[in-house]
Amino acid sequence: DAYTGQVNVSTQPIIPVTPITSTSTGQRLTFNPLLHNDGNYLDQRIAWHFILYPQPFGLQAEYTIGRGPELNTDRNEIVPGNIRGGYVQLFYHYKCDTFCLSIFPYVRYQEYFGGKKFEANSPRNSVRELELGIEYQISKALELTVAGTFTSRNTSDGQFSPGSCTNTLPGINIPCVQTPYERQTGNLLRFQLQWNF
């Protein structure tokens, strides 16, 4: 699969890596990142897919490379950048004799590096996830999936603390702190019961 086109990027105020402080209030000043071509950026992707149906082992994979908009490392300009990412999943098909139709234990690894084009400022995102799970097909109409995910990714916001960087109280200097797009790690346990009709 491949495509090429244009994507329009929106912006929101952000504190650059090298902050500028107001001489009158002492507050850090926020700016919208610089856009080029009225916010329209080239967006290109090429993707590869592979699937080996379980007999009883199976393998599924996809990988994408391309170019798209992303916030630069100084956090003051949206620039064209490279993206890459994909996943690989190994699974096994066990046919049950009683109490179910099939059981599919699986392991899945996925990663993505590049700008998040549909978020304000198109921040660079770095995602690495490992998922272990099992799909239990109770009948043709009913299946249960249980999965545990270990994840490491960037936050998707550029929030301020306090919520506004404007000082409304005379004589009181409240520091404006922004920690956008920080790296976070976490674990997730997911249960999904699906009924097909």
* Mean of pLDDT: 87
Oligomer: single chain
Individual helix count:
0
Tally of domains = 1
- Give the tally of β-strands: 11
What is Rg?
23 Å
Portion of residues in beta strands equals over 45%
SS-based class:
mainly beta
Distance between the termini: 32 Å
Assign an overall shape.
elongated
Q: SSE string, helix = H, strand = E? A: EEEEEEEEEEE
Structural account:
This protein is an all-beta fold and 197 residues long. The chain is built from no helices and eleven strands. The strands form two sheets. Strands 1, 2, 3, 4, 5, 6, 7, 8 and 11 form a nine-stranded antiparallel β-sheet that branches. It has a two-stranded antiparallel ribbon with strand order 9-10. The mean pLDDT is 87.
Describe the secondary structure blueprint for this structure.
Elements: E1 2-8, E2 40-52, E3 57-71, E4 78-92, E5 94-95, E6 102-115, E7 124-137, E8 142-154, E9 160-161, E10 177-178, E11 183-195
Brief descriptors of the model:
9-stranded antiparallel beta sheet, mainly beta, two-stranded antiparallel ribbon, 197 residues, single chain
